[in-house]
Write a structure and sequence with these properties.
Layout lengths: L8 E5 L4 H16 L3 E7 H12 L14 H8 L3 E6 L13 H10 L1 H14 L7 E5 L5 H7 L3 E6 L3 H8 L1 H6 L29 H4 L6 H12 L5 E4 L7 H10 L2 E3 L24 H5 L6 E5 L8 H14 L2 E5 L17 H5 L3 E4 L4 H5 L4 E6 L3 H9 L4 E3 L6 H11 L3 E3 L8 H12 L5 H17 L5 H17 L1
Parallel strand pairs: 1-2, 1-4, 2-3, 4-5, 5-6, 6-7, 8-9, 8-11, 9-10, 11-12, 12-13
Helix pairs in contact: 1-3, 4-10, 13-18
The structure holds uridine-5'-diphosphate (UDP).
Amino acid sequence: MADNHRKPHAIIIPYPLQGHVNPSVHLAIKLASRGFAVTFINTQSIHHHTVKALDQKPDGDGDGNGSYDIFANVRRSGHDIRYTTVSDGLPVGFDRSLNHDQFMASLLHVFSAHVEEIVGNIVATPGEGADFLIADTFFVWPSKVAEKFGLLYVSFWTEPALVFTLYYHMDLLRINGHFACQDCREDPIDYIPGVPPLQPKDMTSYLQESDTSSTCHQIIFNGFQDVKAADFILCNTVQELEPGTVAALQEQKPFYSIGPVFPEGFTRSDVATSLWPESDCSQWLDTKPPGSVLYVSFGSYAHLSRPDLEEIAHGLLLSKVDFVWVLRTDIVSSEDTDPLPDGFKQELGDRAIIIPWCSQNAVLSHPAIGGFLTHCGWNSILESIWSGVPMLCFPLLTDQFTNRKLVVSDWKIGLNLSDRNKTTREEVANKISQLMSQDSGSKFKNAVEALKTKLEEALMPDGSSTKDLDQFIVDIKDRIH
Ligand code: UDP
């Protein structure tokens, strides 16, 4: 525990995926700006990707000092944030996208030994020490590592509270027969505390799938066992978005809604908010009328099937709407890097730009953007609301189905496409038109603008997320001293 002469010291270890690292960086800055010392630990693989991204930028020199990378935000902030790396158990050059199962298995079985070593070294460094460990809820080891080194365990959940509570109450789903029962039950799940009745199809894919032997399932089962021993839980949500769910969780654990954890200057194109090289499409967007362009992205790691990709591509063509499409080279797989239909790009002319990655926040906040065709990753949803952009939802895996339910059924800020392998080009074109039209789209636009205001208010000095973060700081300092 802290001696009285040094700042309270947090060690932060994000899950090594883009959608988890990004909010963790922002959380580190927030805590450091409130007087904490922070040690941020990335995996060597993520670090390598970031440095490679810097090398590809015009002014990047790859030494970690370029001005556009996400960690530049950390350096610019001038706060007490130290940075180090740890092995995830696999060689840096290993293709984690192609060998996802092996990657997950390494995180499940091997990673904790590396983490123990590095945390042990930090704690044992004379004059250093640490007080608490902030680790992603998906890790299976934090409570044990924290206990071993006398640290408090703060679990960081980067998805909505609704997803957290479904995993947290997995036993209730089992008892009631809704667990691992894809398509076999249609009656609603009406017994999760604080959650209005929910359709089984709205659960995360891992809770629906009947084969529960996968590594991802083991990670979730064990992670949610481990979080029961957490001292505090921080969630990247906003109380006003999910009031009933958050209130019910607060009765069970010290649970704080501190979202959206965005950094200052979040929507500026010179402030990087991601880990990969970002193509700038602002000049092209500047030539387009307000609200006329659809932004299309399926996040950092989900894959589309080739048939779905083709239907979406043809649907975009049919829609006649202009668009920016973030098409990762591994969107179908890292072995099929050119999956667009023949002649697709030629037919587009100036109607669209297709890029491998962008500053999503800069794009979403551009006045030309009028809609977002999204896989419903939680960060993407928060960012879309933040920019007042309604969504067309095409969830692919994990929490994205539950997130879609929030967008479409609860908040009514978007539309739904039919599920994977069922959507057609005609449906895609039709729904894009509905979302983007001044008439049929206005109800979504009005609803998302109202939610945007709630997010902004939550981050004001007396807003709910600011107050929850303040309270967390008071509570953890109480435990440290
Ligand atoms: N993102 C980005 N540029 C892109 C596409 C995505 O910076 O071209 C960022 C996006 O802003 C978000 C993150 O990558 O912060 C994706 O996280 P999300 O939770 O939406 O999806 P995931 O990648 O975890 O499936």
